[in-house]
Amino acid sequence: MAEIHEIILRPLVTERSAIAEATQNTYVFQVGENANKHEIKAAVESFFSVKVEDVRTVRVRGKFRRFGRFYGKRSNWKKAYVKLASGHSINFFEA
Question: Alpha-carbon distance 28 to 82, whole Å?
Fold first, then answer.
């Protein structure tokens, strides 16, 4: 099993993820390309001390972009939707 910092790269805090957090108790993370659902569940449970109910993953394809006068492609990446059990929550903005 990989290290936690190789599995969970960062939380994705967007308007859509905030709505999912408020309504469905679901948090969104950018995860490593090779991380599977079992590793993601174990990493979130151990790092945040919460109970995970469900994990859904999505591979996001990189966009083709223009960088000055050159064309290139952004990297592909993977994100995970992690649903927590009722009564559990994660606070990213603790003081």
Answer: 6
Rounded to whole angstroms, the Cα distance separating 42 from 48 reads: 10
Whole-angstrom distance, CA of residue 92 vs CA of residue 79: 17
CATH number of domain containing 78: 3.30.70.330
Query: Considering the domain boundaries, does residue 53 fall inside one?
Result: yes
pLDDT digits (tens, 9 = 90+) for 32-86: 999 999 999 999 999 999 999 999 999 999 999 998 999 999 999 999 999 999 9
Per the structure, the count of domains in the chain is 1
Instruction: Give a yes or no: residue 91 inside a domain.
Output: no
- For the stretch 9-32, pLDDT in tens is 999 999 999 999 999 999 999 999
